[in-house]
Design goal:
With about 575 residues, the protein is mostly helical. It is built from 23 helices and 5 strands. It has helices at about 15-30, 35-65, 70-95, 100-110, 110-120, 130-145, 160, 170-185, 190-210, 215-220, 230-260, 285-300, 300-310, 350-365, 380-395, 400, 405-435, 440-455, 480, 490-505, 510-520, 525-535, 540-555; strands spanning about 150, 155, 315-320, 330, 335-345. α13 crosses α14 (about 350-365) and α15 (about 380-395) packs parallel to α20 (about 490-505).
Length: about 575
């Protein structure tokens, strides 16, 4: 079904609860494992409809945050979702305490019950009000960012559209665009601080109500960290500091020399080449047609998948007034469809989005029928492997989008993967600091961020910028506001994607088969378990990061410099 034809109907809580409780009662009275499974399937079906309708609402709201109807509907789900979660919690308790638990595990798998235990530890009816407030504040942040209307170059631009000017070969234009962006954030700094203050406090209160010392352990549970610990994450960040930060510093030095500037300022960092970064050729329609050609040639599975996306209007990529910032992929289970949301702005990032978000959607498409539904997708760090690796698997088709600049794009893309790791680790450590110390003031948080920049992003210079220069860079990172601790996931996944990239250099077909197997598995194992199943090393193994970093650095160091001028 085409997206515009998909009917939306609010899932009214009282009616849903009545149906859900009736199915729960049937499950409780069932006299056998088979009868309980039948009741569970009815509950899964109810839950799929809820997910579908709330996702339809969210998509249509983010496509146009000025649409009053879907704004009101989104507010309804922000308020009501914790109550829906309470019902699901009761379902999980019933499965967890089932007298047929052993038989159920044989059908549903032990991982479901591991994750049920995590879900039960991270929820209680007494925090429903706090969860609703957290949702409201996250939406408030999203609306604030989407509200940007910036006058520049004779146009009115949102933040995504302004991004095209931040890669201008003209340094004066880059600086002016950066100043406009900073002016927007500075004008809203009190509101940004107030929203985050409230988010930290409401999360801290929920954690303490559940018996945790602060939000950090609760945040780990909410991210379903089921195969590694905080200590392993800290050790990984240490590896990034030791192995990647020096490489990143070398990359920035090379960039400075290519650009011919005496100081590389923050507003220079997005520009890799003096004459301009590679930019996609053609209209958005032509980019999508080239995407169709690319995915058809990549594999039979990707060709079928991308045709399905385009035929059913499941990829909204054009930036427009009122559209929320950023990009995401979500699922509409009742329609067995993924949906991709993005903001094209005429930069190389459009092709990153075309491959990254499509990687998420491809995995969702391949494992959309996994049972139980909890196995359709893995935890987030595994999900990001699908997206980040797809960016590399599509390298052979970059001439379709960049023509003679395709090699420059590949160089820039691989370098950006390495440069990202220190930034991602800074975001993760910052969140640990914030939630371990919920009493920090806004200025103290900005000071902590600046300290982390000295560790992970040494040499970053802001040229007197009045917002980013005072430690505000983290406040443009939506994940920090909306999904605590969802960021180290990208770093872990990037390491795995680089491992796939290294494998491609030796045997591309073997690498693709591993990737395809990983996507089809969906969420049938833990993060580390999935890696073991397809024969990848875990990022927590020091040898993994060292090996992929050395391979990537060798590629960059051996690159034909004449192509970069």
């Amino acid at each position: 079904m085409k997206f515009h034809d998909m009917p939306y109907q609010r899932v009214e809580y009282d009616a849903y609860r009545a149906d859900f409780e009736q199915a729960l009662e049937t499950l409780a009275k069932a006299g056998s494992a088979d009868a309980q499974l039948d009741a569970a399937k009815a509950l899964f079906k109810l839950r799929d409809t809820l997910i579908t309708m709330s996702s339809l609402c969210f998509i249509r709201h983010t496509i146009n945050t000025e649409d009053a109807f879907y704004t009101a509907e989104n507010d309804y789900y922000d308020e009501t979702n914790p109550k829906f979660e309470e019902l699901n919690n009761r379902f999980y308790k019933a499965l967890d305490g089932s007298p047929f638990r052993t038989e159920l595990e044989k059908v549903l798998g032990p991982l479901l019950f591991t994750n049920i235990d995590i879900a039960l530890r991270s929820f209680d009816e007494k925090i429903i009000g706090g969860m609703a407030e957290e949702n409201r504040l996250s939406s408030q942040y999203q609306k604030l960012i989407a509200s940007a209307q910036i006058a520049f170059d004779g146009k009115t631009l949102n933040l995504s559209q302004l991004g095209a000017y931040l890669v201008s070969p003209d340094r004066a234009v880059r600086k002016a665009a950066a100043e406009k962006r900073s002016a927007f954030f500075l004008a809203h700094i009190k509101e940004l601080d107030d929203i985050f203050d409230q988010l930290v406090q409401v999360r801290d209160k929920q954690a303490k109500a559940l018996g945790f010392p602060n939000h950090t352990p609760l945040g780990y549970l909410r991210m379903t960290r089921n195969s590694y610990t905080r200590e392993q994450v800290e050790a990984f960040r240490g590896l990034v500091r030791d192995e990647i930060v020096p490489i990143a510093a070398e990359l920035r030095q090379k960039q400075k020399e290519r650009l011919g500037v005496s100081d590389l300022y923050f507003y220079d960092e997005a520009l890799e080449f003096k004459g301009g970064n590679p930019t996609p050729q053609g209209t958005p329609e032509e980019i999508f047609e080239n995407g169709r050609k690319m995915y058809r040639e990549l594999s039979a599975e990707t060709g079928e998948f991308f045709d399905f996306l385009l035929q059913n209007e499941l990829f909204d990529a054009l930036g427009r007034k009122g559209k929320a910032a950023g990009g995401y992929c979500t699922d509409l289970p009742d329609f067995r469809s993924p949906f991709v949301f993005a903001n094209f702005n005429g930069t190389s990032n459009d092709i990153v989005v075309l491959t990254h978000e499509a990687g998420h959607a491809f995995q969702g498409y391949l494992s959309r029928d996994n049972f139980p539904p909890e196995y359709r997708a893995p935890t987030y760090e595994a999900c990001e492997i699908h997206s980040m690796s797809m960016e590399f698997f599509t390298w052979p088709w970059m001439e379709l989008f960049f023509g003679k600049d395709a090699d420059r794009y590949r160089y820039m893309h691989l370098g950006s993967a390495l440069l990202f790791l220190p930034y991602g680790c800074a975001v993760d450590e910052f969140q640990h600091i914030v939630y371990d110390n919920p009493g920090l003031t806004p200025n103290e948080r900005r000071e902590e961020w600046l300290k982390l920049e000295q560790v992970y992003l040494p040499g970053t210079a802001y040229d007197g910028d009045k917002f980013f220069g005072i430690g505000g860079r983290w406040q443009r990172q939506a994940h920090i506001y909306e999904r605590p601790f969802y960021y180290i996931d990208y770093c872990l996944a990037q390491t795995c994607a680089l491992e796939f990239w290294a494998l491609m250099q030796k045997d591309r077909q073997a690498a693709w088969q591993k990737y395809l197997a990983l996507c089809k598995l969906g969420g049938k194992d833990t993060f580390t378990g999935l890696l073991a199943q397809v024969g990848l090393k875990t990022p927590f193994d020091p040898a993994c990061l060292k090996t992929v970093a050395a391979s990537a650095k060798a590629f960059i160091d051996g690159f034909d410099e004449s192509k970069l001028r």
